[in-house]
Amino acid sequence: MTETLFILSVSLMFLLGFAFLTWYLINSRPRKIARRKALLEDSLERLKLISYELLKNVDEYDQAKQFENKALDSLSSRSLKNISSDSALLSESLETIEHLLKKRKLDDANHILAASAKLAEKIQSDMSTIAPDGIVLKIESRKKEKQ
């Protein structure tokens, strides 16, 4: 009789523990999703600032070369065309990320956001090769961090 009572009490403890764990996981999921979405939206805003600065610097460099009436060497010309096409791809990917965030497809948005950040880094390094003194990006968050 005591063995049966012991087995029943241990089984009841496991059942209650499993029920509590299930309840906790179900209730914490929406908070995790909301937190992840907010983090991705913040990262998107930062990437927008970076892409704006990159596009502005690429345009300024292109305009400066046109006004100097210097013929670009073939390497610089090819690099500038690649940078321009990469910049267009970057701006299109920002719209895609926004759309995915609205649809709550966070994994897809995260993958495209990471690829876009790598593309922005590539654009910056390409610009620094053709205009070494031209690009220095300093992006600061507008939000104050909680202490």
Order of helices and strands: HHH
Q: How would you characterize the largest beta sheet?
A: none
Which range best describes the helical content: under 10%, 10-25%, 25-40%, 40-55%, 55-70% or over 70%? over 70%
**Outline, from the CA principal axes?**
rod-shaped
Amount of beta strand:
under 5%
Poorly predicted runs are none
Distance between the termini: 57 Å
Q: In angstroms, what is the radius of gyration?
A: 26 Å
Instruction: Label the structural class.
Output: mainly alpha
Q: Give the helix tally.
A: 3
Q: How would you state the average pLDDT, rounded?
A: 82
In total, the number of strands is: 0
List the helices and strands and how they pair.
Layout: H1 2-68, H2 74-102, H3 106-130
Helix pairs in contact: 1-2, 1-3, 2-3
Q: What does this protein structure show overall?
A:
The chain has 3 helices and no strands. It has about 150 residues and is an all-alpha fold. The protein has a domain of about 100 residues. About 10% of the residues are buried. The model has no long low-confidence stretch (mean pLDDT about 80).
Which labels suit this protein?
rod-shaped, mainly alpha, 82% helix, 3 helices, 147 residues
Write a concise synopsis of the structure shown.
The protein is mainly alpha-helical and 147 residues long.
